[in-house]
Write a structure and sequence with these properties.
The chain is built from four helices and seven strands, in the order βαββαββαββα. β1, α1 and β2 form a beta-alpha-beta unit.
């Protein structure tokens, strides 16, 4: 059984990346519900694979990249927070890593995210630059 979870199970106050054994402390209902799901699954079976990830983006669906490009088309000025740091994670990379974990018969909790860190603001800037957005 594979369960996709989130970095929202933590409060975001740690100054370096969270480790799998760091104590959770969710700040909102979403984080609490994902943590409950993790706990339920781990009680249900010892064969669980819990994959915590963050800042997902991909070609399809609603995500930060699609949102920034849509807002750039619709608004004259974008407002993007610059006080949250994370690792934007490409959905293809996430799915490939989950496949490797399954092939290795991995069990337990794993943090899976792309390696670079940035703020939402710098991520937004990169999206506009890479899309060759013209004002």
């Amino acid at each position: 059984m594979v369960y996709l979870s989130t970095d929202y199970i933590f409060n975001g106050k740690k100054k370096e990346p969270y480790l799998e054994d760091d104590p959770p402390n969710p700040l909102n209902v979403y984080g609490r519900s994902k943590l409950k799901g993790e706990q339920y699954l781990q009680e249900l079976t010892k064969d669980a694979l819990v994959v915590r990830t963050q800042w997902l983006y991909g070609r399809y669906g609603n995500n930060f990249v699609a949102s920034i490009l849509r807002q750039a088309r619709e608004k004259k000025v974008l407002s993007i927070v610059n006080d949250q740091i994370g690792s934007p994670t490409y959905t293809v990379d996430l799915s490939e890593t989950i496949s490797v974990l399954l092939q290795c018969d991995a069990r337990g909790v794993f943090h899976v995210a792309n390696s670079d860190l940035c703020t939402w603001y710098t991520f937004g800037q990169a999206i506009l630059k890479l899309s060759e957005w013209k004002e």
